[in-house]
Design brief:
about 110 residues; alpha+beta; HIT family, subunit A; five-stranded antiparallel sheet; 3 helices; 5 strands; about 25% helix; binds guanosine-5'-monophosphate; binds zinc ion
Length: about 110
């Protein structure tokens, strides 16, 4: 499968890793939308939230949010941050490998576009 985030997870593409455990990887977005813009992904290929099996939801979602919490501490995001998941076409998803954006370092606007 030709998936860019699988290649990053498999270290076929050299990427600086921000956080890693057996199931999860985090790295900087190549086109940052905030001073801190990190992507948190499961290493396993899952296309999007709707494609998550219940077992993956139960195991991976808590790990992803624990990683987000830890990275936010390490990146001094104590004033706050935003977590975004774009799901499928109407959600604005462009890379079909589940990922959560962690954005911080500035005040965010609402509503999103
Ligand atoms: P989406 O629009 O699917 O929610 O977000 C995909 C994100 O992945 C975008 O913010 C884009 O900048 C980022 N991205 C796409 N390809 C690469 C890549 O090869 N490396 C990195 N670090 N980020 C990428
Ligand atoms: Zn993938």
């Amino acid at each position: 499968m030709d998936c860019i985030f699988c290649k990053i997870a498999n270290r076929e593409i050299d990427t600086e890793v921000i956080f890693e455990n057996a199931e999860i990887l985090a790295f900087e977005d190549q086109n940052p939308q905030a001073p801190t813009h990190i992507l948190v992904i499961p290493k396993k290929h899952i296309s999007n939230i709707q494609e998550m099996a219940i077992e993956d939801q139960q195991q991976l979602l808590p790990e992803i949010f624990q990683a987000i919490q830890q990275i936010a501490d390490e990146k001094d995001l104590g004033k706050g941050y935003r977590v975004v998941n774009n799901c499928k076409h109407n959600g604005g998803q462009t890379v079909p490998h589940l990922h959560f954006h962690l954005l911080g370092g500035r005040v965010m606007q609402w509503p999103p576009g």
